[in-house]
Request: fold
Amino acid sequence: MTDPDDWNAATIAEFRANKGKVGGYFEGAPMVLMHHRGRKSGREHVTPVMYLPNESDPDSIYVFASKGGAPSNPGWYYNLTDAASGTVEVGEETYPVSVHEVVGADRDRIYAEQARRYPGFAQYEEKTKGIRTIPVLELRRA
Reply:
């Protein structure tokens, strides 16, 4: 298995070299680079993830703490929710965001739309069934 840090570094480099576009498994998918500070380490991190645009608000996007269907949430989820803020790179633009967790029926509707567009997310949800509900975060331009 490839080291996640190596994969992230390669994806980040490709994202920046191609104005926010990447190939391979994520070709054609909307990608964002999330900048967040480690809540324990204080270190700056950049994490590439897929996002879902908020169709009714161009200043807002949704990200999904799927961790590929793992039984635990990814570290970036805790970093962003603890800080309630971060920075994102979308395409060639970088801007600060506020972070809000989406819950209940809104969370379910948004996650279902992501799973409809990208069936891998339905698989992640199936893998976590009975273990955890995959969090959905709204990142809103600050």
